[in-house]
Design goal:
The protein has 204 residues and is mainly alpha-helical. The longest helix has 34 residues. The protein is globular. Keywords: Membrane, Transmembrane, Transmembrane helix. InterPro entries: ExoD.
């Protein structure tokens, strides 16, 4: 299937881009370098969305959280596209995880796209930095809170933020960022309670 230029691709729904990635991804293994080379202009949003979807799966949240930190930091720095360290970019990853995440998400995303469209346009650079900062904080919860199923909510919120950023939907992005604030507040309370409990046990 011919590859579309970056400008044309910007108008294509995220589900179409994901389906094409699913159809074109190598059968057994792929690399992040292959992924970024095939995404061009939309690489930040799509890559964060894909990694967030993978992070929802059990046992993969810590690795996914670490990977999410890389594009998040680069968004804060104002980079045009994510650049992974060569060792990570060229590392082979199993296609089955990517394919499963894409196939599970496409029906849901296609349903969401019925009501998602560009609105409440915000400046690209400031939006990019804000999204990067929030995704970075949420990613730390994936890495530092390895409690079973604790990854589902923050990973889902990151996926929602990524989708809103991709579709330039300021309304959805505002809702997703509000959800992120709630998740971060709950996570902070949980960590604080663990610290207080540990201190109480130590004082016994």
């Amino acid at each position: 299937m011919p590859r579309l230029p970056a400008d044309a691709r910007a108008l294509i729904p995220a589900t179409v881009v994901l389906q094409r990635l699913h159809d074109e991804v190598p059968a057994d293994q792929f690399t992040l370098a292959w992924l970024t080379n095939n995404l061009h202009k939309r690489s930040f949003g799509i890559i964060m969305l894909l990694i967030a979807l993978v992070a929802i799966a059990p046992g993969l949240s810590i690795i996914a959280g670490l990977l999410l930190m890389i594009p998040a930091v680069q968004m804060i720095a104002g980079k045009a596209a994510p650049v992974f360290p060569r060792r990570i970019a060229t590392r082979s990853l199993p296609t089955r995880h990517l394919a499963a995440a894409v196939q599970r998400s496409i029906p849901v995303l296609r349903y969401l796209e019925r009501v998602i469209h560009p609105r409440w346009h915000t400046p690209l650079e400031s939006t990019k930095r804000l999204v990067g900062a929030v995704v970075l904080i949420l990613s730390t919860t994936l890495v530092l809170v390895p409690i079973p199923l604790s990854n589902v909510v923050p990973a889902s919120v990151i996926a929602l933020i990524s989708l809103a950023y991709l579709e330039e939907d300021g309304v959805l992005l505002s809702i997703a960022l509000l959800a992120a604030m709630i998740v971060m507040a709950v996570a902070t309370m949980g960590v604080w309670e663990m610290v207080v409990s540990a201190q109480w046990i130590a004082d016994l």
